[in-house]
Amino acid sequence: MLNFSDLKIWTKHHNLMHWLVNIAVASFFSCYIYDSIIRLATGTCVTLLIALLFRNTSITLVFLLRRPSKLTSRNVGDWIAAIGGTFITYLYTSQAKPIHPFVVPTAYVVMIVTAFISTICIINLGRSFGLVPANRGIKTDLLYGIVRHPLYLLYTIYDLAVISLAFSSHNCYICILHALFSYLRAKREENILMQDISYKEYASKTRYMFLPGVL
Fold first, then answer.
1. Which of 66, 68, 123, 159 could serve as a FRET partner for 139 with CA atoms 20 to 30 Å apart?
2. What is the torsion angle, in degrees rounded to the nearest 10, for the CA atoms of residue 183, residue 187, residue 193 and residue 195?
3. Is residue 212 pLDDT above 80, yes or no?
4. Which domain does 32 fall in, by range?
5. Does a structural domain hold residue 90?
6. Looking at the DSSP assignment, which residues form a beta bridge with residue 167?
7. 158 contacts 180 by C-beta, under 8 angstroms
């Protein structure tokens, strides 16, 4: 039987692992903060770089501050979907040309807008933000009052703008894989979250996962 002393040791170990993971992931994303700052010096689409700077900074901060989960998935498939969905976009290559010069201004506007709105979603999630399916608290306001997974939709729209600027079969495959990973992540997150009665009530009111009236 687990006694009080064993429980204290387990809790201390759990909290230590929580902070180590938070610091490790935050450190990874802080590299992109540094990269955005360096690229700002080049003057290439400054507004987009500022938007990405805000987004990466917000991810770094919420990882440092996020609360321990009430329930975290231990399913290997859930972890693969989460890790794949997070890092697969780093396989995009810039060694390609836009579909047409006409789409370039529009693509940049879409990327800027989705990056800023993504930042709002991340800040709104706050201490509930995470990568692996877990329950760190339910968010139901702002865009989460319209659809249940607005962040994944924004990521997909951003990706479409990216491949319109650097169109190639390779980048198209990455975009499709990222969209599939995002769908899997959302479904697997809901397997965890649906165990919470408050999320079930939220899902019954907010019927759509990504697009109102569609999906």
1. 159
2. 180
3. yes
4. 7-205
5. yes
6. 97
7. no
